[in-house]
Amino acid sequence: xxxxxxxxxxxxxxxxxxxxxxxxxxxxxxxxxxxxxxxxxxxxxxxxxxxxxxxxxxxxxxxxxxxxxxxxxxxxxxxxxxxxxxxxxxxxxxxxxxxxxxxxxxxxxxxx
Length: 112
What we know:
Blueprint: H1 6-16, H2 29-37, H3 41-52, H4 56-71, H5 78-84, H6 90-101, H7 105-110
Helix pairs in contact: 1-2, 2-3, 4-6
């Protein structure tokens, strides 16, 4: 049935995404988490917002940028880091990174 506790929802969410820093982004995301919980994707998003006071997508982006920050300390290219963090489009990654951190991935790397 539908999740009745924050713990159950969080467990399902953690299995699907967002990933722990440094790991590639989970595939399937909200759809997989909703399926595991036996609820619709729309209801999953509503529960996520209710329990975590943010959107699922916002948390995924936050986790991806956090992972990228760690990966940028190494020598990998920005393109490879974007790919490792679950982005199919490097420009989209750069835009989201800048929106979250106030700088580009290259600027972040140079400042470290």
